[in-house]
Amino acid sequence: MEVNDKMNKRRRVVTPSGVSRREFLRAGGIGAAGLVGAAGLRGLVRPTAVAAQTADDNPHTTHNGHGDAGTVGQVNHDANEFNPHEILTDFDYGEVIGEENGRPIRRWKIIAINKEFEIAPGIFFPGWVYGSQTAAASVRAGHIVGQCPGPTLRCVEGDRLQIEFINASNHPHTMHFHGIHSAFMDGVAGVGRGNINPGESFVYEFDARPFGCHLYHCHSLPLKRHIHKGLYGAFIIDPDPEKYSGEEHDIAKTRNRHYAENASVNEMVMVMNAFDTNFDGDNEVYAVNSIAFAYGMDAPIRIKRDQLQRLYLVNITEFDPINSLHIHANFFDYYDHGTTLKPTLKTVDTIMQCQAQRGILEFSFAGFEPGLYMFHAHQSEFAELGWMGFFEVQET
Ligand SMILES: [Cu+2]
Question: pTM for this structure?
Fold first, then answer.
């Protein structure tokens, strides 16, 4: 019933000026929230060269159409102080500050700050974000400047983790980790330590388990607002090969960065997210790693044809019940939640995730013709509103 209500609401959703959200974007009309800059959107989709020569009122050539997908203009990543290409491969291992019973004690310093950032050319989002002292993607000139999604925290099964959280924003926040730990460390408003108020800090401490592709996010109330604002990130626990035997031991080595087997794999992180830029409870911009068309034709992800690709995929999209990923012209193996060493789905080309669901994709373009291979959400609307990119497969 709730889902039906939501779908009905979406069909008739209107902006205060009485146009649908798609018309709203087409007209570049997000200005009410002060969100359109000089680029002024005629739509998030760039016409082709041919289209550019035809009448603007031809719906096939001016929008959603038969042309290159992307945005008009460029997002200023320098002004954002974070770059989705850097986030893609930036794993934050924190700092090993000691040892306890033969295992490392791994510590991070994480802050929460308010941060406005550009999510599509000329569209700025007043976000709340995490930053880490040890994440290359969120530190500039020695200062933690924050990033969206938050730093990808990575460790090994069994590590003792200490996450020092400092709330440098003006709202209460928490860090809630998906993993196994005590109620006190759960980072939920009203439970255990609960909210960390502005100016306060707290150290979350627990063991890293189970291995897998997990996530963390703020769990203050109202929850959907605190998540949607940008307080989330991937949390990866590598398996410890010494805990497994036989074939599992060998497979675990490829997922653990301490082993040479892992070094031959190209690892990437994508957090599927979306932004409600006019605060009507529906998203206007969709992305992986926050920036619409971040890995589009003008900035594809370059990968080596013969290298095994491993993609840690997390869905944190608020307001929409599911999100998905589809890879063109290829198939992949999938590990739901990343908590198994053998695939839970073999040879698929599309997977869907509800909010907070996540998993690991493994694929290769060995033997393929070099070129641009598309990937996108297979909710076509999400793809057209920013959640689309390309792998540029190269021979070497
Ligand atoms: Cu929060």
Answer: 0.85
